[in-house]
Amino acid sequence: MLFKEQDISRIIEMAWEDRTPYEAINILYGLSDSQLTGFMRKHMSSNSFKMWRKRHRGRKNKHLKLRSSKVTRSHCSTQYKPR
């Protein structure tokens, strides 16, 4: 798949965010878990990719089925403040 630069940036940002589930990336950009891993490997430096994999491997909140029902939003309440 070919993505615009702004989409590449947003996919990487969403993949790094703790509360954004992988299913949201799949719905918005059509990337499965394995495709996302390949995407991240291609668009990040080797060290950044390794840090991302280490941080997100096995994280329960990145998969909707494993996520606690207490998580009701995709971002911190203070993350997006009006300008």
UniProtKB/TrEMBL annotation:
Composition-biased stretches (Polar residues): 74-83
Q: Which ranges are annotated Basic residues under compositional bias? A: 51-73
Question: Where do the segments described as Disordered lie?
Answer: 50-83
The record's listing under Pfam families reads:
DUF2805 (PF10985)
Against InterPro entries, the record matches this protein to: CHP03643
Which protein, by its recorded name, is this?
Fumarylacetoacetate hydrolase
Q: Which organism is it from?
A: Pseudoalteromonas citrea DSM 8771
